[in-house]
Each structure stands twice: as C-alpha cells, then as structure tokens.
Amino acid sequence: MARERRTDPRAAPVAALCRDGETLLGAWPLSDLPRLAGSLFHPPAASDHVSWQARFGQETPVGRAPQTWLEVEARTHVTLQCQRCLQALQEPLSTQRRFLLVATEAEAERLDAESDDEHLVLVPRLDLLALVEDELILELPLVPRHDGTCPEPLPQPAADEAPEEARPNPFAALAALRKGD
Ligand SMILES: [Zn+2]
Question: What is the model's pLDDT at position 173?
Fold first, then answer.
C-alpha cells in the first residue's frame, strides 16, 4: 500500500509494478484530461471526476513465453450533444482494457495484427493519465443520442406552419398598396 501512495501515476515504473503485482487507483478531475474534456458539449464541472484503476502483473502461460501485462479500468460521466435533438445528453463513459507489454513499437504492431490482444510498448515510466484518456476517447459514441425518445419535443417541421394559401402573398400586398394610391 505504501507504494500506491508514493507512485506517480503519470510516471509509473511499469516493470517494477508488474514484477510486484501492484494495483494503483485513484480519481482525477475530468478537467485534467484536456483532450477528452475538449470534445464534450459542456466543459466539465469542478466536481466531475474520472475514477480509475491499473493492475500490473506477470504470468507464464503454459508453453509460452512469460507475459507482462497491465489492465486499466476507468469510469466517468460526460455531457455530449444528442445528434437528434441537439440538446445536452448525460452519458456514463467507461473503459476496461488489458494490454500485454512488449519491447518495441514494431513488435506491438506485429502482435496487434496477429492476435486479439492489445499490446503496449514497455517504457520505463508510463503516463497512466494519458493512457486512460486515450482509452476513454475511444469509447465516446460516434453518434450520441438519447435512448428511446428525446426529453425535449422535437421541432415539428411544416405541420405547425400556416398552410401555403393562407400566407400573405407579398406581391398581392404590394398591389393593394398601389391601388390605394
Ligand atoms: Zn435527444
């Protein structure tokens, strides 16, 4: 537990954390994730937080090379713009992903193509906040919409407008003025 208090999650010593099977967890203000915050309909309130957890470990699957892994979970609430009624939409946003750690970017790309596992390059110091932010951005809905019906009534096109023939014809109005001369 002592390590959890002194480890900086923005510079996490991944190899040591995996070796020791550590878990880090905490909460960040949503405004500390500027790329995510900048894509929201409303700027985050001071009380909006992202709660997160990162578990580190290593194991040797039967008949395979030892694996070092990192599992990240995070959840928050965001305000998006409903693409149907254009009003604000509160959405829970969460992610959970397990990464196998590998030595190089080339190896990560090769293994990503070969398997369903996600791979991450093992760096001496990992910025967990940036990783969590990347993962949450990936979870944003492409077309946010209220579930079912929107709370605000939609503008009714045409139906509430005056029928065509009842509208004053600007040319007729002009002709009437001329007649009055
Ligand atoms: Zn809506």
Answer: 57
Strand runs (DSSP E) across 60-142, as ranges? 67-81, 88-102, 118-121
pTM of the model: 0.78
Percentage with pLDDT > 90 across the chain: 66
44 Cα: distance to centroid of ligand 1 (angstroms): 20
Q: Separation of 104 CA from ligand 1 center, angstroms? A: 44
Higher pLDDT, 23 or 161: 23
How many angstroms is it from 76 CA to the middle of ligand 1?
20
Enumerate the domain spans of the chain. Answer: 2-154
Residue with tokens 């209220």: 146
97 CA distance to ligand 1 middle (Å): 30
Q: Are the CB atoms for 144 and 81 separated by under 8 Å?
A: yes
Distance 91 CA to ligand 1 centre (A): 12
